[in-house]
Amino acid sequence: MHYVSTRGGIDPVGFSDAVMMGLATDGGLLLPETLPSVDQHTVSSWSNLPYQYLAVEILSLFIDDLSRTELEDLVERSYARFRHHQVTPVSRCGGVYILELFHGPTFAFKDVALQLLGNIFELLLKKRSASMNILGATSGDTGSAAIHGVRGKAGINIFILHPDGRISPIQKLQMTTVTDPNVFNIAVRGTFDDGQAIVKAIFNDLEFKEKYHLGAVNSINWARVMAQIVYYVYAWSKLHAHGFDSVDFSVPTGNFGDIFAGYMARRLLPPGAINRLVLATNANDLLCRFVNQGIYSRGTVQATSSPSMDIQVASNFERYLYYLRDENGAAVKADMQQFDNTGRLDLSALRQRVREDFVSVSVSEAEVMETIRTFHRDGDYLLDPHTAVGVRAGLTFRHEKRPMICLATAHPAKFGAAVHEATGLDPELPPAMAELADRESRCEVLDADPEVIKAYIAAHALES
Ligand SMILES: *Cc1c(COP(=O)(O)O)cnc(C)c1O
């Protein structure tokens, strides 16, 4: 399996190189050169596989430069710390199915991909006798999942910037109580945007980037998408075992990452297995406008109760665009240039095709609150606000004959304030979350100045 860039400007590379590259060197995103698909017979044989076994089957379709033993070992270690033996169990409530993706170390779905990515990085670096310093800025969720993905790993140091005093206490503790010697938490005296701008400036200093082997863990790494394909197939196979041939998924979306994995799963499985993908957005409706009108245009970010989806540029959108443009890299490159220049892309001529893949609705704050309240009152099930966005959208498009599987992307206790507002109830903190307050913590507070951050990295980076 080789990987190409959405902008058509690189020679195909193997899986390992694609993972180490992150962003393609021509500025595009990496995708498999040809998409694997599996027949009915094969998927039927996957029906009762435990999550880890299924993951190995699916990953091996996309990876041909790691051995089966290496894959089995990676998968085994990546999901050993999940609190549910099924890793991503499916439950049923309020007329929909709920695919629970929050049983990992940081109680949000990003663990599914980042636990695996951390282990893949460690293995590849070891094989190459190399090291890497990961640098990222976070508004909360991604940073903690990344830290938990690489803590204690050989050959990797990680530096994560968060805005000092501007993330929730739980989110802060999930990062700062990781005191492994390879983890460096930096609280920046500034906003999330300041942190992001600093990271961007440091990555643009190519000499510094080379010298310290800087790497990223943002959602554009192909390995993250790949890891997420697994739970779509897992959920589908659970319902298939109950006699359903076709299902729908509803996905709360910000960066287009999670739902793009659903699109890949839909193309992997036999036609019709995944009927529709519901793209659910909060008030930040950039992607909803794209699906319904064919116009992809930047707006201004609005703060909502589902902050991990408060996004106005969807970093994985370009991957879908590549298929919409019939795998024409030059066309994608022109589109992205136009978007960079004008903040707007008119794809309305392709609207029909988009609507064969997705349906979409934007969910208001009032609807989020009402959905959390209803599921608690009628089903005794607590939804976090991100999950509630997906559930609400799923109910809008539910077909009576087909299961609607809604992705639950965070544990309700992680966003307890919103749950409290909706239900008057404070979700019980799981022990792993409750005990954080008593742990030792480590964090450096630094000025929002790229030179200050660089000096700190230089003093603590791994060199090779
Ligand atoms: C990141 C995140 C999302 C959005 O996922 P994308 O891949 O960016 O679409 C949804 N819910 C939670 C809890 C998240 O952390």
UniProtKB/TrEMBL annotation:
* UniProt keyword annotation of Amino-acid biosynthesis present: yes
| Family, similarity comment | Belongs to the threonine synthase family.
- The Threonine synthase N-terminal domain covers which part of the protein? 2-79
Q: Which Gene3D superfamilies does this one have?
A: 3.40.50.1100, Threonine synthase, N-terminal domain (3.90.1380.10)
Q: Where are the transmembrane segments?
A: none
Q: What is this protein called?
A: threonine synthase
Keyword presence, Amino-acid biosynthesis? yes
Tell me which Gene Ontology terms the entry assigns under biological process: threonine biosynthetic process
Under InterPro entries, the record lists: Ser/Thr_deHydtase_PyrdxlP-BS (IPR000634), Thr_synth_N (IPR029144), Thr_synth_N_sf (IPR037158), Thr_synthase-like (IPR004450), Threonine_Synthase (IPR051166), TrpB-like_PALP (IPR001926), TrpB-like_PALP_sf (IPR036052)
Pathway annotation: Amino-acid biosynthesis; L-threonine biosynthesis; L-threonine from L-aspartate: step 5/5
Keywords from UniProt, A to Z, are: Amino-acid biosynthesis, Lyase, Pyridoxal phosphate, Threonine biosynthesis
